[in-house]
Inverse folding.
């Protein structure tokens, strides 16, 4: 029996990057996966690649109706046992360069989206006998961050929301943990110049970027029954960048 | 000292008690315009050297009891 047989996991922002790596790994280990994203083409292509174990739903995490549709898609695949709140944006700007639109965009997608998601999945997870929620924060949620004020604000928020939700949902057999990746090689940081990449790497004791597949392994562990007593925890995956 | 608050009566009373060293401004911290007025009030007192971001609310509710309502709806 595979690790995730008869388990259904919803991955927000699942069309590319870390979310896609998580979807691939989970399907390979027996899960059924709902890929939510606003990127229709990439999401549908990934669902097609993964076959009948995966389905794509267009999913704006700031929309309660979209969350309801995503949960419904999971039910059709057999219930809902896991949620990865992976969708997020990173548009770095220092405090004095952060305007109201940039601030609101981060809060809406990164923070409010996570709030809506946790609330949306609870009834379906309870019907499935419990569940596991993994909130993707960042090293920017473990320490202060230069030049990414709004992003850091939301990633710190996720860390606190995770712990408070773990307490609130403990009695419902739903675990909630946060994952804090350091620099991971995805499109999210593709805008960096080679010089900026080199500079960032100097701050990582392991002297390299992480891969989406490495993050997916941690997320899969937290979704699985192997982590059945881990809840309210924050786990860095960052080559010791936050150590 | 500039005292900012939504509570006019209590803010004005405190400013009165403290005398000319204090002034009260009605101040909704979610309003950029109110922040500008508060800073202006400080300038009139001789500049601005400190800020205490003290305003806050605490309306406890568990995750599943937390609804979408914003402060203005709740007020």
């Amino acid at each position: 029996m595979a690790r995730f047989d008869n388990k259904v996991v919803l991955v927000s922002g699942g069309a590319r990057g870390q979310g896609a790596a998580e979807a691939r790994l989970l399907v390979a280990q027996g899960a059924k996966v709902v890929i939510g994203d606003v990127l229709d083409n990439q999401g549908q292509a990934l669902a097609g690649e993964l076959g009948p174990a995966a389905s794509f739903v267009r999913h704006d995490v700031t929309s309660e109706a979209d969350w309801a549709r995503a949960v419904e898609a999971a039910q059709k695949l057999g219930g809902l046992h896991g949620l990865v709140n992976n969708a997020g944006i990173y548009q770095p700007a220092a405090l004095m360069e952060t305007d109201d639109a940039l601030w609101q965009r981060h809060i809406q997608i990164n923070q409010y989206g996570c709030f809506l998601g946790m609330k949306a999945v609870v009834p379906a997870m309870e019907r499935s006998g419990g569940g596991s929620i993994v909130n993707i924060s960042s090293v920017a949620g473990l320490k202060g961050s230069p030049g990414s004020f709004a992003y850091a604000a939301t990633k710190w928020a996720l860390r606190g929301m995770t712990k408070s939700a773990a307490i609130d949902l403990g009695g419902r057999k739903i675990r909630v943990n946060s994952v804090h990746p350091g620099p991971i090689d995805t499109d999210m940081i593709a805008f960096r110049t080679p010089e900026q990449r080199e500079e960032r790497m100097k701050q990582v004791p392991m002297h390299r970027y992480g891969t989406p597949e490495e993050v997916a392994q941690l997320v899969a562990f937290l979704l699985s029954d192997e982590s059945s007593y881990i809840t309210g925890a924050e786990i860095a995956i960052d080559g010791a960048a936050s150590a | 000292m500039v005292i900012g608050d939504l509570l006019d009566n209590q803010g004005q009373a405190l400013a009165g008690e403290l005398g000319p060293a204090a002034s009260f401004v009605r101040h909704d911290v979610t309003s950029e315009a109110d922040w500008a007025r508060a800073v202006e009030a400080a300038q009139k007192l001789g500049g601005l050297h400190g800020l205490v971001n003290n305003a806050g609310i605490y309306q406890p509710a568990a995750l599943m009891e937390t609804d979408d309502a914003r402060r203005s709806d709740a007020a």
